[in-house]
Amino acid sequence: MSSSEAEQASSKSRWYESKIGLLLIGSVLSGILVPLFQYTQETIKWKRQNRYENVKYQLGMMRDGMKEFVMIHAFNAEAYERIRPFAENTTVNSKDFETYASQHLDMQNRRFQQNARFAAFLIYFPENGRGNLRETYNDYLGAVQDYMGNLEKLVQVRSGLVDSKIADKSGLQREFQQLQDKIDSGLVLINQKYEEVLQMMKQQIGGKEDESESYM
Amino acid sequence: MRARVICSLAATSLLLLSIEFGAHAGRPDIGGGSNRVQTPYKYGSAVTLKDVTTVKSIASKSRTITDVVKAGTHITETGENVALMYVRGDAATGTPLYQIAGTTDSGAKQSIDFSEIESFVVSKDESNASSVLIDVQQFPAISAAELLEKKPTYTDLTQFYSRKIRLKINTAGPRGTVLALVVKNPPAKGYKVAAPVSDLAGNSQVKLGYGVFSFQSLPLPAIWWATESVTSDSKYPYRVKVRARR
Questions:
Q1: Which secondary structure element, helix H or strand E, spans residue B220, and what is its range?
Q2: Which residues pair with B169 in a beta bridge?
Q3: What is the DSSP-derived secondary structure letter of residue B211?
Q4: CA distance B27 to chain A (A)
């Protein structure tokens, strides 16, 4: 390299090392690159926080849904208690049957409302498990429907047993006994279906809890 | 298994037709229900040794688990027909084992059949990475013959025939397999891995429930020790009630 070229090269490098050059480089770094980096970091952080909040909200709704489902199950106990005087050897009269009919209707209405309340929470369960959950819940409802039907029938048969106009009650006695057995086995089936629905919800909630922790 | 002794379609007044997915004792109940006892035996009929041993052997293979906690995840496991098996990965194709076998603190070998296990707790063995310590709650620790001879009540069983045994078991199996809890949930035909034993959360209790078996198209609970002397006790917990989970 000639001496003039060498002088030119060294003046360029001296420019970067000059005060004005360093000031310009510093300005670019602090004015453009650093804010850009910070902005990108903040965006990532904000997106993660947003996803975490969504998961947290969804988790809360799933847990509330599970609570509503437990409340549904309590109606099976209430329904049995209402027919207990008719199932056991308690003296019952026509007024008792009328009282039962109106109380049973009221209980059914409350039960349907609770079913609807729970159904509204199903949309918060993850899509990949929701179909299965809905199907299992419908199986549970089917078992409950059969159980409620048998409870009502038991009361009707008991009404026949106390009716003095009916002479031969042996058939009714047999039916009464069979219904008691059906009610017992129906309740056990309901417990089984209840466990299945609950377990599904618990597993999906557990999966969502794992997901929420992954954001930490 | 004789029809007349185990069950009869004609006399079901006190015999519960149980289709329950595991009969768990001690879970909090919502209340309601007839409260009638759950038993595989016909009330008022003589129960023979063969009946009890038959139901006992069914009970071994039909235990259930609920809410088993694994370390590192909130997802719990539930299943029927629980067994132990040496598995590789997720492939549960080995031979199912229906007992917990290991060595006691004194070095003696001991094996407890699943039909006699109420629950167990797994903890780490600090001295050996490929073994775990299992505290087994054995209930009832009574043979079928002694059950029929002594006719204990449920209270007698809990007071005199319940014990805790600590076993050290090897979790490493042949050809790189590991010991795992497996379940078979109908209608699936095969087993699936619920959790490797070493993955069970430390100090978390695994309770075994009783499954059901079919007899003359009737589903019966496999509570082999639920003879009349036991179920007559008011403290006997397996009854028809509206149940809620813990």
A1: strand B218-221
A2: B132
A3: -
A4: 12
Q: Give the CA angle between residues B37, B41, B45 to the nearest 5°.
A: 110
Q: Structure tokens of A194?
A: 């209840």
Distance CA B163, CA B103 (A): 16
pLDDT digits (tens, 9 = 90+) for B56-84: 999 999 999 988 888 888 888 889 999 99
Contact A74 B12 (CB under 8 A): no
CA dihedral A19, A23, A29, A35 (to 10 degrees): 160
Q: What is the pLDDT of residue A124?
A: 94
The answer to whether B183 and B195 have CB atoms below 8 angstroms apart is no
CB contacts of A70 in chain B (<8 Å) are 244
CA–CA separation, A160 and A33 (whole Å):
89
Q: Are A107 and A75 in contact (CB under 8 A)?
A: yes
pTM here is: 0.77
For residue range B100-118, what is the model confidence (pLDDT) as tens digits?
999 999 999 999 999 999 9
- Give the separation between CA A77 and CA A111, rounded to whole angstroms: 12
pLDDT, chain B, mean: 85
Cα B108 to Cα A66, A118, B104: the distances in Å are 47, 54, 5
Pair of tokens at residue A185: 């086995």
- Indicate the residue type of B141: A
Residue A75 confidence (pLDDT) above 90: yes
Nearest CB to A73; choose among B22, B30, B36: B30
Q: Is residue B212 within 8 Å of residue B129, measured between CB atoms?
A: no
Say yes or no: B80 contacts chain A, CB-CB below 8 A: no
HSE-up (13 A, CA, CB side) for residue B72? 5
Burial track B14-32 (b if 16+ CB lie within 10 A, e otherwise)? ebbbbbbbbbbbebebbbb
Which H helix or E strand runs over B68? Answer: strand B63-68
B176 Rama sector, left if φ>0, alpha if ψ -120 to 50, beta otherwise: left
Average pLDDT, chain A: 89
Give the per-residue pLDDT at A22: 87
Count CA within 13 A, CB hemisphere, residue B210: 30
Residues of A in CB contact (< 8 Å) with B are: 70, 73-74, 76-81, 87, 177, 180-181, 183-185, 187-192, 194-196, 198-199, 202-203, 205-207, 209-210
Report the residue of B7, B13, B16, B21 to disrupt the A interface, i.e. the one with the largest count of A CBs within 10 Å. Answer: B21
